[in-house]
Amino acid sequence: MPEAFSAVWATPGLVWLLLAIGLAGIVRGFTGFGTALIFVPVAGIFLRPEIIVGVITLTGIASTSALLPRAWSQADRREVGILALAALVTVPIGLWLMGRLDPVSIRWVVAAVGAITLAALITGWRFSGQVGRPMLVAIGALAGVIGGLTGLTGPVVILFYLAGQSAAQSVRANTILFLAALDVVIVANLLLRGAINGQIFLLALLLAVPYFITSLIGQSLFDPRHERLYRWAAYAVIGLAVVSGLPIWGKEG
């Protein structure tokens, strides 16, 4: 265990990882999303994909207690349940792909997913069709694949909710609840594969401290009357993270 502690403090780019997760906590606290979109591109500069996926999902689970009680009472639990069950089936596919793609290719996937999500939201794309059970299953399934491959658990569902006409409060609650469920599914799969060791667990625990605190700060700042301001602040932070995480700027750890 002392060796694991030493390895955690020697993690490449630890200061940047702490800053990224702290900022991500604020954004998630007042919007309900953004953690992985902010943290994963930055972490990709320093860490291997399997470490990133383990750390971001463990950190998400550790911090959920700060946001879940309110989200549970406000979310459409039936809808979130369908999304989560679909993701449960496809997460192993994403993890299988992660083990077969090289880290630079995965970083490009992260950048592409982040950029597409951000562009769709900024341009104001709106889905006006009917959302039935088949579409919910498809959205949850795609989120599971991308989450298992990259650690980006939220973009598919974020795009689905924020591109629609739901109220900010409902979007925030549903997203928090689904991301919590998906984090649990991914971690369970990683544990079954023996892919989470002491170093990953301790790094996640270390990052969870600032993330928990800043999530509470962000939640206290949330006010439905300022929905537009929150969205554009989140877009700016996500855009900066995506650009900074492009493989052209640095090599993976």
From TrEMBL:
Q: How does it sit in the membrane?
A: Multi-pass membrane protein
Could you state one GO cellular component term attached to this entry?
Answer: plasma membrane
* Lineage top rank: taxon: Bacteria
Q: What is this protein called?
A: Probable membrane transporter protein
Q: Does the keyword Cell membrane apply?
A: yes
Q: Mind listing the UniProt keywords for this protein, alphabetically?
A: Cell membrane, Membrane, Transmembrane, Transmembrane helix, Transport
Question: Can you tell me where the transmembrane regions are?
Answer: 15-39, 51-68, 80-99, 106-125, 137-163, 175-192, 198-217, 229-250
Q: Where in the cell is it found?
A: Cell membrane
Q: Which family does it belong to?
A: Belongs to the 4-toluene sulfonate uptake permease (TSUP) (TC 2.A.102) family.
